[in-house]
Amino acid sequence: MKNSNILNNDYFCLIMRIDIISVLPELLVSPLSHSIVKRARERSLVEIVVHDLRLYGKGKYRQVDDYSFGGDAGMVLMIEPIFRLMEDLKKERSYDEIIYTTPDGLPFNQKEANRISCLYNIMILCGHYKGVDQRIRDHLVTRELSVGDYVLSGGELAAAVIADAVVRLLPGALTDQTSALTDSFQDGLLAPPIYTRPANFMGWKVPDVLLSGDPVKISGWQEEMSVDRTQKLRPDLIDEPDKD
Fold it and tell me: What is the mean pLDDT of the chain?
């Protein structure tokens, strides 16, 4: 599996590359410049480059959008600037996946994040305005993803969510290599309740089993709590069959 050799800086590895195409690249500066993503970039685990689509726009005003055929309200991102930018990027490398962020895409979930984390080169096209020319989706995009059943002002926030969820899975991105494996959804269940010091606060006590020091009992309790929480809060995760 890709990235399995990234254990520390003493190992040679191929760096994941994420290219993001955006009409408003400044929206991505902060989300990709802090916390785990920042550390992963500093450790050369991932290279993230944001490209301003307007640099490929037409005319004096760098036009990248136009009215839709058919008279529907709202502007549509044009095919020409996107095609030219993608072609320039493809001259530098081959892409394992070209993702388009859209409300009507496949649901982005932990399984999808795991899958993408095993790739090397990813391109993300941020939707904007009313969307993109359908020919882009038909001929240039390989995967369409949605972060939820709602509409955002643009796909930049969705791209940041995808990048964050993927990057934190790269070996070496987290201080504790096992941390990501115990996150919610990794095994199809919600994570169990977690506690820290003090063990007793205003009479609100940490469950005794977590203070027992018995790893078998603790593991059994955590599994039971995960199933219980999932049944109460997200029964759909248990009831629905696993889907690709």
Answer: 89
